UniProtKB/TrEMBL annotation:
Similarity section: Belongs to the LysR transcriptional regulatory family.
Keywords tagged on the record: Activator, DNA-binding, Transcription, Transcription regulation
SUPFAM superfamilies per UniProt: Periplasmic binding protein-like II, Winged helix' DNA-binding domain
Protein name, per record: LysR family transcriptional regulator
Pfam families, alphabetized: HTH_1, LysR_substrate
Gene Ontology terms for molecular function: DNA binding; DNA-binding transcription factor activity
Segments forming domain HTH lysR-type: 2-59
Annotated GO CC locations: protein-DNA complex
Length: 291
């Protein structure tokens, strides 16, 4: 019989790429991860890893086993959800991940609702970039999270996760004077930290307009971004939730691009009473997210 905990380690290795990354995410030592994967190979009876120096690559058999593992873990989550539905009151911990602008506008009212309706539920919030949320959900450090995609940076399918649309925003060009995106090919730009969705959106939107942005400043808080625009330090792209308060002198020009936010959770957990309550509260709060 294959050990589920070892299967989970193999699944994490498929997503994270290195044994060190798996160990760091799941609070193991690298040697412990290696030992458990070696034991899984013995259980499977076929090679699962190809080792070259300090790097490892999953064999075709291992990749197929990872596909089965996603199904196995989802079934276990469904069983846990069904058992939890037998309880008369919601208890335990709900771990929510959200990006900064959503914490202020959507998550806060949802937390008020959850605290009022389910006082025995412990709520834990983590602010993080949406790009980091899928890995946190799979590692079970989050139970539900807000994911984003832009027209120029679509959301990639995430094995083992389910996602549902929550709301959509218009993306604006923030500048000191009105004008189209293409008019700022020679302007300095303000973008998020490299590796974040906001950064990728800025670069790809500019490339689609026919130029490579000359990024002068990096800032992840849209309030800071708009302050830099107001100070004449450059132009930027800002979605609705990031532009609720606009400094004097900054002009927003609506673009055809949009940002879409989705609710995501591990496959099989959608019907869990705790996750279902969070989904309901977040959908209600997102009805008018910019208010």
């Amino acid at each position: 019989m294959l050990d589920v905990r070892r299967l989970r380690l193999l699944r994490e290795l498929a997503h994270r790429g290195t044994i060190a990354a798996v160990a760091d995410a799941l609070t193991y030592t690298p040697s412990a991860v290696s030992q458990q994967l070696t034991a899984l190979e013995r259980e499977a009876g076929v090679p699962l890893l190809e080792r070259t120096g300090r790097s490892v690559t999953l064999t075709p058999a291992a990749l197929r086993l990872v596909e089965h593992t996603e199904t196995i873990l989802a079934v276990l989550e469904e069983a846990t959800a069904e058992l939890a539905s037998c309880r008369t009151e919601l208890t335990g911990t709900l771990r929510i991940g959200a990006f900064p602008t959503a914490v202020h506008t959507i998550l806060s009212p949802a937390l008020v609702t959850l605290s009022r309706d389910h006082p025995l539920l412990e709520l834990l919030v983590t602010e993080l970039d949406p790009a980091a949320a899928p890995a946190a959900l799979r590692a079970e450090t989050l139970d539900i999270a807000l994911l984003q995609e832009y027209d120029h940076v679509p959301l990639a399918p995430e094995p083992g996760l389910d996602a549902e649309p929550l709301f959509e925003e218009t993306v604006h060009l923030a500048a000191r004077e009105p004008g189209p995106l293409a008019a700022h090919a020679d302007s300095p730009w303000i973008a998020g930290t490299p590796g974040t969705l906001c950064y990728e959106m800025t670069v790809r939107a500019c490339l689609a307009a026919g130029f490579t942005p000359r990024i002068r400043h990096h800032a992840d808080d849209f309030g800071t971004v708009l302050a830099l625009v107001a100070a004449g330090q450059g132009v930027a792209l800002v979605p609705d939730l990031g532009a609720l308060t606009v400094p004097s002198g900054v002009i927003l020009t609506a673009l055809s691009a949009h940002r879409r936010t989705h609710l995501a959770y591990r496959r099989g957990t959608g019907a869990h009473p705790v996750v279902a309550a969070a989904r309901t509260a977040l959908r209600a709060a997102a009805t008018n997210p910019a208010e």
